Amino acid sequence: MRQHKSLIGVRMVVKSHGARKRTRDRFRGPKKLTVNRIIQHFDIGQKVAIRISSNQQKGMPFRRLNGKTGVVVEKRGRAYVVEVYDMDSKKKAIARPEHLKAA
User: Fold this and answer.
1) How far apart are CA 76 and CA 52, in angstroms?
2) Dihedrals φ, ψ of 35, to 5°?
3) pTM, entire model
């Protein structure tokens, strides 16, 4: 069987299926991670905005929820459970304080 000349030695690009796929522009920016951002405290019932910090991968909520505003429902370890509206349904996002900002 003969191979076509243009396909000899060509490697196909494998599609990425990682947790941070298609986030090149979304997570780009000069977001410095400071100590105050890590140790900030939120009360239950407080409104917070989800602003994902690309400097810290731990405790990062799902990329679609970046920029959304929600209410803190509970504290789970060092992270907070935030109830957010995504389209028409309520979702719960678990995020560490460095990815949250008081709204």
Assistant:
1) 18
2) -65, -40
3) 0.79
